[in-house]
Amino acid sequence: MAEQKIDFTRSDDRINTLLEYVQEIVDLSSLAALADWDQQTAMPDGANEVRGHQMATMSGLVHDRQTSPQLGELLKSLEDVVHQPQYSDADRALVRDTRRAYDFAVKLPRELVKEMEIARVDAFNTWVKARANNDFGLFAPKLKKIIEFQREVADRWGYKETRYDALLDAYEPGFTAAKVSALFEPVRDVSKTMLKRIQQSGNKVDMSSVSGQRFDVEKQKELCIKALKAMGYDFNRGELRVSAHPFTTSFGSPFDVRVTTRYQEDYLPMGLMGALHEGGHAVYEQGVAPTLVRTPLASGATMGVHESQSRLWENIIGRSTAFWKGQFGLVRECFPEQFQQVSAETFARALNNVEASLIRVEADEVTYNLHIIIRFEMERAMMNEDVSVESLPSMWNAKYQDYLGITPDSDANGILQDVHWTSGFGYFPSYTFGNLYSAQIYNTLRKAYPDFDERLAGGDVSFVLNWLRENLYAYGTIYQPEELIQRVTGEAPNPQYLVDYLTNKFSQIYNL
Amino acid sequence: MAEQKIDFTRSDDRINTLLEYVQEIVDLSSLAALADWDQQTAMPDGANEVRGHQMATMSGLVHDRQTSPQLGELLKSLEDVVHQPQYSDADRALVRDTRRAYDFAVKLPRELVKEMEIARVDAFNTWVKARANNDFGLFAPKLKKIIEFQREVADRWGYKETRYDALLDAYEPGFTAAKVSALFEPVRDVSKTMLKRIQQSGNKVDMSSVSGQRFDVEKQKELCIKALKAMGYDFNRGELRVSAHPFTTSFGSPFDVRVTTRYQEDYLPMGLMGALHEGGHAVYEQGVAPTLVRTPLASGATMGVHESQSRLWENIIGRSTAFWKGQFGLVRECFPEQFQQVSAETFARALNNVEASLIRVEADEVTYNLHIIIRFEMERAMMNEDVSVESLPSMWNAKYQDYLGITPDSDANGILQDVHWTSGFGYFPSYTFGNLYSAQIYNTLRKAYPDFDERLAGGDVSFVLNWLRENLYAYGTIYQPEELIQRVTGEAPNPQYLVDYLTNKFSQIYNL
After folding, report:
1. Chain B residues near residue A27 by CB distance under 8 angstroms
2. Chain A, chain B: beta-carbon pairs less than 8 Å apart
3. DSSP string of A148-181, one letter each residue
4. Residues of chain A contacting residue B42, judged by C-beta atoms under 8 Å apart
């Protein structure tokens, strides 16, 4: 990507005025994100209701600011000139993203936003209980409410062909359900094919080094911190906590980007790979150019591009033999007894067991996209068809039987496993977008460094982070996904890279 | 106190409109408090600057709301009617407190509020470094800035006799520097007298059971949690963390009230008594009537009344033999080795060592008020006289020599020891107000329960909490301090109760 100044044209007063507008909005949104982080990692249960009110107040306020008539006027006036060469790509992106948020927001009345926020908090709190008690019936009325709100949102935003398009476009601009289906098709095919070939081979991966023994949780945390530091996550701008579902959040990228993971005492990859996944999101946000701070541009380009970085770090790098050859000392330091007889190769192999399983976040690279495609299809049905909420668990279970050949033993391990639907629909496809983009970016990275594996195996990780920072992270949201992937890799998004990556990697691991 | 409905007249639309105004303000202030809590207990250093901007944005927003002309009109119209008998004491207090905040805020321009918030964050961050490096010179320019801002604030608010009166009145309505001096005089006299008598007696308290051994910090935390539960702090509405300076904060009383303490491995009372102190603040806020939630009334009446509850629980109850007779099992559970040979009486006695010391937060009940009176006098000088910032450390040290007979060995243990001045002046006197009120309330409590000591020694603490909730906590800020103390104790604030309490308690402990 050509060298370019990543900054706003601060000599222009209209740009400065727009910056002041968005800085206020971003400051408030950052504090709302902090409240959400607190709610998921620390808040006492007794505060649920009052926190719901506080979040609703904040959402309403942000909404007011995003829809102010003065902002509308300012955007119009800038849209007349910002294409001119004296303006920067950052200026153009600022106008574009602010316009997008403005248009989304003006189409949603403030009262609706408040109601939706109260419903989200309510759904989240109920989901926690419903999952703990394996009681979908408890969650069903909340999900029904979410579906109704999401349909109303889609109708108000507008869409090309189907309701679900509106929500997809919100996360990955330019994409529709039909386009996504076409892009996902080769991924679904290679996933099913590879799963069958692996199952038929009868070959197994030995997981005994990472599973079924006791891994002290405090030591796991220490390992996660060391692994995050090894990949370049900056703890002077971040923190690691525990939450029910791992996530990354930012209260002012690139300066405050925090991650969570969760630990399972007898299964090391749960905590460690969760940390690497969130670490991938986090190094992306920590790598945004500081000139973009307190603007909507200080973030990942889209949810899909964001996921490309969590998947790149977790899977492509974090489950590679080369990476663990370079970092195995960290594992042995934290768990000397468990790993004194185990090689880096055996450890890395143990992270690549392929199995048809029930839980998305524990799924391997081969089956992962099948979990996503099921959710994509269910969201499409909830948005575009008249399915009853009561029928959703059986629809879920039938799809798992169809795609993965297994049926969930409980709703807690089935339809209740993910937090995402408490916030609405359209996010899940991002994970498979992420896998698609990550394989394509990885291909480019390997071309840039023909000695890629040797460097990693020698303990150097910084060359990967530096290349990604320079070519991708620094730009924040300046470029939209298709242009961005074109700029980074020289080619539009192409599923063939993921198909090849999965085929090659797992043919080798499973000796097919 | 007569039974009375603690609620607003919700059938009146003007009251409802006022409630909507203040709920929004309180919601935002709660989220700002959450951000401050995060900053002091978790936030990575790299986020200092961006967080400063976020807090400034939030302050500005709250300021806008507190000064909106519509709110001014609404207050005027309610002030014409709210004295009528169909309105409740809660309505009247809501109008009074909102008016007070409105008047304070309209006198401070939004730009000034923003600058002050940035200066506060800057001063706080500098203070952390200055204290760590024992470098007053680093902090001096920040303190100078704070003094200038506080003078400007006082001038804008207005005052009766001296500048400092404005700040005192903000914390303890109705009080001036002259009134405070008069009230504090008997306290200063009894403190100096008792200190001298104790020193001259040559008698000592044996502290070896709580000091100079190793007390595992995790176990200390466990003990703090158990002790907080014993006094009735509700963890379903709270949390305990660690911070450099212990504090209590609320993000929606009575439903989310959190506390911090700090631990010293070789000195048990640091963590434990810090937790009981903050626990006292916290049970007060957790005891506010739920009808007052999301209003400015859901808080302690004043800083002084708030301190009366932290001092009551920390000192009067938490350093009494009767309390530890009832709760010594907790101490032995956490530290069986250290306390198997120690009695509850010996433990309680060890918590009452009297000594002229440098550090306020470690001071005993006899000398504590001398630390406060020094700060009171220094604040008065900074506000009312032309003292140079450079001369403050020597002024501080001279006063310690005068009042306590000792001189600080370093500024870190002297003028840099407290965080308070980074937020301005006027708070410190609250601690001695707290001691005055607490002794008076304790006197009333003992009259209500002639078997007070026997109950406590038998392990019952709930009768104390229940009485305080019913007679004091539930009312939040409805009554101002002089009226409140009159209602709770049947008498105006009277320093004689503290004089008697200190004289009797320490004559007995030191066998004078």
Report:
1. 53-54, 57-58
2. 116
3. HHHHHHHHHH--SSSHHHHHHHHHSTT--HHHHH
4. 239
DSSP state of A450: T
Does A256 sit within 8 Å of B46, measured CB to CB? Answer: yes
Q: Could you say which of A27, A38, A294 has the minimum Cβ distance to residue B34?
A: A38
- Which residues of chain B have a CB within 8 Å of the CB of A49? 255
DSSP letters, B57-78, are HHHHHHHHHHT-HHHHHHHHHH
Name the residue among A427, A395, A392 with its Cα closest to residue A307: A427
Question: CA–CA separation, B230 vs B457, rounded Å?
Answer: 13
Clarify whether B278 is annotated catalytic: yes
The partner residue sitting opposite B54, judged by closest CB among A31, A238, A239, is: A31
H or E element at residue B260: strand B257-261
For chain A, give every domain's residue range.
13-145, 177-204+278-322+342-509
CB atoms within 10 A of CB A189: 12
Q: Is the link from the previous residue into B495 a cis peptide, with omega within 30 of 0?
A: no
Q: Which residues pair with B337 in a beta bridge?
A: none
Mutate to test the interface with A, among B38, B63, B218, B236 (most CBs of A within 10 A): B38
Contact status, residue A310 vs residue A434, Cβ threshold 8 Å: yes
- Count of Cβ atoms closer than 10 Å to residue B156 Cβ: 14
Q: How confident is the model at residue B3 (pLDDT cuts 50, 70, 90)?
A: very low
Residue B228 Cα distances to A303, B263, B279, angstroms: 44, 15, 6
Annotated binding residues of A for Zn(2+):
277, 281, 307
Average pLDDT over residues B113-125: 89
Could you give the CA distance from residue A439 to residue A430 in angstroms, rounded to a whole number?
A: 14
Nearest C-alpha of chain B: how many angstroms from A402?
A: 44
Q: Which of B50, B251, B294 sits opposite A256 (nearest CB)?
A: B50
- Asked if B119 and B145 count as a contact pair (C-beta separation under 8 A), the reply is yes
What's the first-to-final CA gap in chain B, in angstroms?
A: 38
Chain A residue with minimum CA distance to B57: A24
What does the DSSP assignment read for B277-315?
Answer: HHHHHHHHHHTS-GGGTTSTTSS-SSHHHHHHHHHIIII
In chain A, how many H helices and how many E strands?
21, 3
Q: Please answer yes or no on whether B38 and A38 come within 8 Å at the CB atom.
A: yes
Q: Which one is catalytic: B117, B278, B285, B365? A: B278
CATH number attached to the domain at A177-204+278-322+342-509: 1.10.1370.30
Identity of residue B191? S
Structural tokens at position B257: 């009230």
**Coil vs helix vs strand at B261:** strand
| Min Cα–Cα distance to chain B from A236, Å | 5
Which amino acid appears at position B295 of this protein? T
Query: CA B242, B248, B251, B256 torsion: positive or negative?
Result: positive
Confidence of residue A3 (pLDDT cuts 50, 70, 90): very low
For range B494-504, the mean pLDDT = 97
Q: Which among B24, B32, B57 is the nearest to A57, CB-wise?
A: B24
Active-site amino acid positions of A? 278
Angstrom distance (rounded) from CA A274 to CA A442 = 20
How far is residue A121's CA from residue A5's CA, in Å, rounded to a whole number? 41
Q: What is the pLDDT of residues B26-78, one digit of tens each?
A: 999 999 999 999 998 999 999 999 999 999 899 889 988 999 999 999 999 99
Which DSSP state fits B235? G
Distance from C-alpha of A340 to C-alpha of A404, rounded to nearest angstrom = 36
Q: Locate tokens 């944005």: which residue?
A: B57
